[in-house]
Amino acid sequence: MGKGIRKAVFPAAGLGTRFLPATKASPKEMLPIVDKPLIQYGVEEAVDCGIDQFIIITGKNKRAIEDHFDTAAELEEKLRNGGKDEMLKEITRLNKIDFAYIRQRTALGLGHAIYCARPFVGNEAFAVILSDDVIDPDFKVLKEMVEVYEKVQSPVIAIQEVPKSETNRYGIIDGELQDGVIKIKGMVEKPDPKNAPSNLAIIGRYILTPDIFDVLEKQKPGKGGEIQLTDALISLMAKRPIYGYKIKGGRYDAGDKLGYLMATVDFALKNSELADPFREFLKARFSAK
Ligand code: G1P
């Protein structure tokens, strides 16, 4: 379990334009779902797979991410002295993890952000986690992808069916699904619904092999003038198979306002402290209408 994958890359340099004005000066990765920032859900998912090296690709206005994963000595002491042990445990849980930060100087796209991680990743397979795709920890998506990777020893991409009208928001793949795994025949970044090869969308979890870096190094800008990971994967497909892993659910597009609200409601309803009073509140809200 997870023995083959030790490193995870978190592209976090995006501008978060779908969530303005909240993301004008604060990173979108720090938006909380209930009480944890989006990026922490992704980090915990990776820890759960045995990953122990974390590479975060940052940009302007992203300092809060570094502070969040740093030790907070003063706060820790205050909690310790105040006997707030539970809270102390919660904020120090990830203290032993080492994070490497690489600054992407210009927002040239997802493919370029991943390329920036090359010196830290070296010559081994690695996970990529896009933290605005929040995944319910009960679904163990990354863990299952690592298991698929261990069998196929080639890149594995998370996919999910989306309404056909939304294909222009995702990388869309072509191929036939068999038992949850698909050998990908083609992909296209954010196609117009008219031209989409399917409604199977790429979700922000990837297991990649290090040969992607040679492709990314030469990758020309694609959709939106950005260096696209999808385009690099298309080129890589000429050399080796790439697999899609159909997730069973539990994914929220928390970089989008509606998806964010859905995640907030569902995660609150799973939170032991909040579930009962929040359910009562929702019931009262709806019966009043
Ligand atoms: C990126 C990828 C896209 C993928 C999506 C998943 O797009 O380019 O292929 O479907 O993540 O969240 P972005 O959401 O960064 O525009």
Question: Share of helix among residues?
Answer: 25-40%
Gyration radius (Cα, Å) is 19 Å
CATH homology superfamily name: Spore Coat Polysaccharide Biosynthesis Protein SpsA, Chain A
Unreliable residue stretches: none
What is the rounded distance between the termini?
A: 49 Å
Main sheet attributes: strand count, strand direction, barrel closure: 9 strands, mixed
The total of beta strands comes to 15
What top-tier CATH class fits best? Alpha Beta
Which structural class is indicated by helix and strand composition? alpha/beta
Element order: H for helix, E for strand: EEEHEHHHEHHEEHEEEEEEHHEEHH
CATH architect. name: Alpha-Beta Complex
Domain count? 1
According to CATH, what is the topology? Spore Coat Polysaccharide Biosynthesis Protein SpsA, Chain A
- Beta percentage is 15-25%
Count of alpha and pi helical runs: 11
Characterize the structure shown.
- The chain has 289 residues and is α/β, with parallel strands linked by helices.
- It has a single domain (7-287), classed as Spore Coat Polysaccharide Biosynthesis Protein SpsA, Chain A, CATH 3.90.550.
- Helices cover 33% and strands 22% of the residues.
- It has 11 helices and 15 strands.
- The chain has helices spanning 38-47, 63-68, 73-81, 85-92, 110-115, 118-121, 141-152, 212-218, 229-236, 257-269, 275-287; strands at residues 7-11, 32-33, 36-37, 53-58, 98-103, 126-129, 133-135, 156-161, 171-174, 177-178, 181-183, 186-189, 200-208, 243-246, 251-253.
- A hairpin with a 2-residue loop joins strand 2 (32-33) and strand 3.
- The protein is globular and about 60 Å long.
- The structure holds 1-O-phosphono-alpha-D-glucopyranose.
- 1-O-phosphono-alpha-D-glucopyranose (G1P) binds next to strand 13 and helix 9.
